[in-house]
Amino acid sequence: MSSQVAPAGGAGRPAPPAGRRKSVTGTRPWVAGLFLLPALLLLGALVVYPIGYSVWRSLYDAGGSGFVGLGNYGDIFSDDATFTAVKNTAIWVAVAPALVTGLGLVFAVLTERVRWSTAFKLVIFMPMAISMLAAGIIFRLVYEAEPDQGVANAVVVGVHDTFAESSVYPKARPAADSGLKASGGGSFTTSGEVRAGSPALLPLVGIAPNKLPGDPADARSPEASDDGVSGTVWLDFKLGGGGEKGAVDAGEKGLGGVEVQAVRDGDVVASATTGGDGRFTLPESADGAQLRLPASNFAAPYNGVDWLGPSLVTPAVIGAYAWMWAGFAMVLIAAGLAGVDRNLLEAARVDGANEWQVFRRVTVPLLAPVLVVVLITLMINVMKIFDLIYIIAPQPSQDEANVLALQLYNASFGGGGDLGLGSAIGIVLLLLVLPVMLVNIRRLRRERQR
């Protein structure tokens, strides 16, 4: 007689019918599907349908009535504006994520080295609380060309003027009957030769007396000297008018700090600088030479860098983006850094590694998974960058700063009115983002399997 052994745990239970099988969570599949239906409907309405409609619309012309096939996709690479947008998008993807990730890594390491780390993190992360619109307005002001308004140029001009002398009278020019003629490069030279004992008068105009720098003194007539060449450089004009042209009159101001050169056969044989009353004296070697006022006396003042010009507008906007997102990268990397085994770092130091070697060969490899997450997230983010460029870049240089997201808006709604081309650009953006997303998904799956 055969015996049957009941399964462990009690009497055997009959298997449920095949048609009534439950899911792993103990819920029938149709019940789970019912609960997921609202989310699936939203996903279809907000994601699937727009993508499908964009694919269909990209195959038609601007009006949507004529089928053009892949013509709109060909226009992306044949149109100069759209091709510039593709090139700039590639620059953004290559530069901005790496720059922000690097800054975040440096800031995250610094937070472990400074005593006021909480305040440091707060300052670095604070820009994340600002919208792209507000950040764009802020940096539009930061990059103002006028040093009195733009912070960036104020710093650049301050540093420049510390190491390089600025011109004394940038708007001055010789009077019409002064005998000074333009001699190239912004300099002025007397038409005749000067002699010892015959004072030289070099009148200048073009500056209002009340606009002279400092506290100018009254001009004084030069004294004749047989031992050299003397003269006066002065402003041949005074408020209220009057006086004789070409003569030093009472109330006219001397121009101090002007360099005067004696030139013979193209060579400078002597030079002098005027005093506060405009007078100067050259040695006897200047006898028979011509007098020249070099261009350094009249050069326009240094006004800084054209940050929003065609050549620098893209790096300038990337700088604004890095200011905003460095805090995001710092927080994520700092969280990963907190989980690093400190014993490994100490072991490397015991083995003789310096701090740079510990950072490069131990810390960075251990943080590689976190760095990849930050890098991929930022790559996806910069592919759709739009508002910073639209706000910061002025209209004359916006074409040079153009990216695909901005070109999509311009082609569809910004005056182009070509919804077919705009839809094609949107699909290209989707195709560019998909590989990055797939890499991220595969990385997440590998992390789960560990």
Summarize the structure.
This protein has 450 residues and is an alpha+beta fold.
Mean pLDDT: 84
Oligomer: single chain
Annotated CATH architecture of the largest domain: Orthogonal Bundle
Number of strands: 9
- How would you write the strand order of the largest sheet? 2-3-9-6-7
Q: Which word captures the global form?
A: elongated
Task: Count every helix, treating DSSP H or I runs of 4 or more residues as helices.
Answer: 14
Structural class: alpha+beta
| CATH homologous superfamily descriptor of the largest domain | MetI-like
Helix fraction by DSSP (H/I, runs of at least 4)? 40-55%
Cα distance spanning the termini: 51 Å
pLDDT below 50 for ≥5 consecutive residues: which ranges?
1-11
Name of the top-level CATH class of the largest domain: Mainly Alpha
As for the number of domains, it is: 2
SSE order, as H and E?
A: HHHHHHEEEEEEEEEHHHHHHHH
Radius of gyration: 37 Å
Strand fraction band? 5-15%
Task: Provide structural commentary.
Residues 1-11 have low confidence and may be disordered. This protein is α+β, with helices and mostly antiparallel strands. It has 14 helices and nine strands. InterPro entries: Ig-like_fold, MetI-like, MetI-like_sf, UgpAE/MalFG_permease. Keywords: Cell membrane, Membrane, Transmembrane, Transmembrane helix, Transport.
Entry keywords:
single chain; 450 residues; alpha+beta; MetI-like fold; five-stranded antiparallel sheet; four-stranded mixed sheet; 48% helix; disordered N terminus
